[in-house]
Every structure is written in structure tokens, then in C-alpha cells.
Give the backbone structure.
Amino acid sequence: MSTFSVLMVEPNKQPYITQIKNDIQTFENLVHGPVDMQRFYQSPYLILCNTDNGYNLKYLKLLPDHPFFIAKYDGEFQNIERLETEQLRMYLKEKMKKWSIHKKRTN
């Protein structure tokens, strides 16, 4: 698949669905650096962020401070369907609240 849809999350913006190219250069441009992939929500979803944010997210439970995106991956990247989007947004909203609480505690 040369392009696929993802849920893009940028600081101070509402998450939105967008089409991206399926190549590492595009991923790195979107997340502002080398890419880290982590499981998100449930299989087959992944969160793709830069490696610094990936470490902070996994070990410190901190809200990413760079753009990141959520992708569907089951052996290959797949489109996120509109019906999946609302479920992912609701879960993301809850996760971001938790990440924000951890960030406040560390400041």
C-alpha cells in the first residue's frame, strides 16, 4: 500500500484522519525525528512517535510533546476506517488525560 490513513495527533489541535505515504522518511518528518512504534489501545493499533517521546511515553507516562500518529498494522499498514476513528479518539482522550496528570506531577 503506497498510502494509508492514520489518526494524526498534533499538540494543541484536535486529532484528525489523514492519508500518509508508507515510507520511513514520511514517518520521520511527521514525528520530527527517528520513529518509535508502540502498541496502542489494542491489536492491531500502533502509536508512532519520535524515539524521545516513545521513551517518555512508555517509561515515564508523559504526554508526547511532538506530533505523533496512530496507525493500524496487521502485517502491513492498513487504513483506519471512519467507524474506528471515534473509538480511537475516545481512548486517546482518556490516555491523554493520564499522560497530562503524570506530566504535572513531574514538573
Remarks:
- The mean pLDDT is 86.
- Helices lie at 24-31, 51-60, 82-106.
